[in-house]
């Protein structure tokens, strides 16, 4: 099978996940490309842009938002992993991407990731922005750390 560009970018995410000490399993919950289940309780969506430099503007389609909402019915551990060229991976949890985009919108939404030279990630979406920057080294630990906000 021929290697596609998207396989290389998704591989960057999956390699870092599988090398984490808390990793135990990786599965496909459905046939959507870029949709994975990690350790039986975490769902991730991977999107990439091959553009080399900041800023990166990711389009989140209505169907992608519907898939994210469906995952949120199954688990509260849902992440959107944005691969920013060959520079960084911006992992957003439910609380973060809910501040950035309106998952109930009938229109496409956008998330912009900007990385100033030597700085952390600044993330702005159609519906708002994150109050704090995200560190580059927060991924993949973030997927395996259950925050108090995620516990029902």
Give your account of this protein's structure.
By secondary structure, this protein is α+β, with helices and mostly antiparallel strands. The protein has helices spanning about 5-20, 60-75, 95-100, 140-145, and strands at about 25, 35-40, 40-50, 55-60, 80-85, 90, 110-115, 120-125. It has a five-stranded mixed sheet with strand order 1-2-3-5-6. A three-stranded antiparallel sheet has the order 4-7-8. A hairpin with a 3-residue loop joins strand 5 and strand 6.
What Rg do the Cα atoms give? 15 Å
**Number of extended strands:** 8
The average pLDDT is: 91
In percent, how helical is the residue content? 25-40%
Basic shape = globular
How many strands, what sense, and barrel or not for the largest sheet? Answer: 5 strands, mixed
Question: How do the strands of the widest beta sheet line up side by side?
Answer: 1-2-3-5-6
The assigned structural class equals alpha+beta
Counted by DSSP, the helix tally is: 4
Helix-strand topology string: HEEEEHEEHEEH
Low-confidence stretches: 147-152
Beta-strand portion reads 25-35%
State the end-to-end CA separation: 43 Å
């Amino acid at each position: 099978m021929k290697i596609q560009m998207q396989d290389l970018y998704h591989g960057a995410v999956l390699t870092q996940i599988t090398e984490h000490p808390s990793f135990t399993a990786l599965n496909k919950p459905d046939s959507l490309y870029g949709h994975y289940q990690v350790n039986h309780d975490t769902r991730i969506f991977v999107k990439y842009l091959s553009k080399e430099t900041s800023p990166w503007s990711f389009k989140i389609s209505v169907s992608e938002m519907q898939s994210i909402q469906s995952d949120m019915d199954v688990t509260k551990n849902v992440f959107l992993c944005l691969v920013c060229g060959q520079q960084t991976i911006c992992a957003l949890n439910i609380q973060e991407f809910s501040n950035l985009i309106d998952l109930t919108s009938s229109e496409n939404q956008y998330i912009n990731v900007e990385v100033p030279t030597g700085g952390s990630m600044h993330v702005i979406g159609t519906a708002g922005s994150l109050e704090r920057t995200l560190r580059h080294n927060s991924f993949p630990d973030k997927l395996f750390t259950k925050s108090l906000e995620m516990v029902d």
